[in-house]
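Weekly modeling sync, notes
Attendees: S.R. (lead), two postdocs, one rotation student

Agenda item 3: backlog of single-chain predictions. S.R. asked that every request posted to the team notebook include the full sequence so nobody has to chase files. The rotation student volunteered to paste the first one in as an example of the format we agreed on. Action items at the bottom.

Example entry:
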Amino acid sequence: MADIALECSCGKVKGVARNISPTTGRRVICYCGDCQNFAKKIGRADDVLNTHGGTDIFQITPSQVEITQGQDQLRYLKLSEKGIYRWYTNCCQTPAGNMVGPKLPFIGIVHNFMACGDDCEKILGPVRYSVMEQGAIKPQDTTKSMPSAEKSAGKFPIGLMIKIFARLFIDKIQSKNRPNAFFKSDGTPVSE
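Predicted structure, as returned to the notebook:
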């Protein structure tokens, strides 16, 4: 297991994701419209989304994440009233992660926030799931194929959902939703 530095594009927000390995998290590329809209709303579609509109995300628990500098720069966006919290940095609009809320032990760290360079592939492992592929964009350059994944699905696969819910249950019992760098102890966001 390794610790990965977290850092926004301008360096004002820094942190660390601890105990990271292919067995402590799950690497996913999501092609959903919400991930695409989020990247566009914060003006980072060109470097967040791959050629087909996918976002590379590493799913871990909030207890593995610590923000060591610039927590006051964190902001969130919800694309709908019941939507998930999509965290980014106010200073340079770097996407940080996606969360359902403070009670669930789950955060998907966006690749742009991970500062592991060429070691990312080795530390995170291969993409295990490519999901919501019905939202994938067909690029003008037809020679570019979609990144490979162990499993691909047009929607959100039931097998992955079962694995996530089982993991959430275990992680919730173990209180891995705390500490949470994105929510205060009373469950309110660290910033608006």
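Discussion: group reviewed the output briefly. The longest strand covers residues 14-20.
Action items: rotation student to repeat for the remaining queue; S.R. to check formatting next week.
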